[in-house]
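Propose amino acids for all 81 sites.
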């Protein structure tokens, strides 16, 4: 496997892990771990898509990462109130 493959595989794996953990109710959908896995996984997947110059997935994964960052901050702020 190439460097691109490893980065993409790890990124997608983290996003799928977050989805699985949420589906089986091991992490809540608005929990910190859920968003962290999605932020890291989305960012790595975006980077892998940049490396192979595949713009549809660059856009998809960039949006996924930004929305996950937003969710992480939103979940953090809601626990303070």
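Proposal:
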């Amino acid at each position: 496997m190439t460097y691109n493959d490893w980065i993409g595989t790890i990124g997608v794996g983290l996003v799928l892990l977050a989805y699985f953990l949420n589906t089986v109710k091991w992490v809540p959908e608005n929990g910190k771990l859920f968003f962290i896995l999605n932020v890291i996984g989305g960012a790595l997947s975006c980077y892998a898509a940049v490396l192979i110059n595949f713009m549809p997935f660059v856009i998809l994964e960039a949006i996924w990462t930004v929305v996950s960052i937003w969710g992480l901050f939103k979940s953090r702020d809601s626990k303070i109130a």
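Residues 3-80 form one domain. The helical segments are 3-23, 32-51, 55-80.
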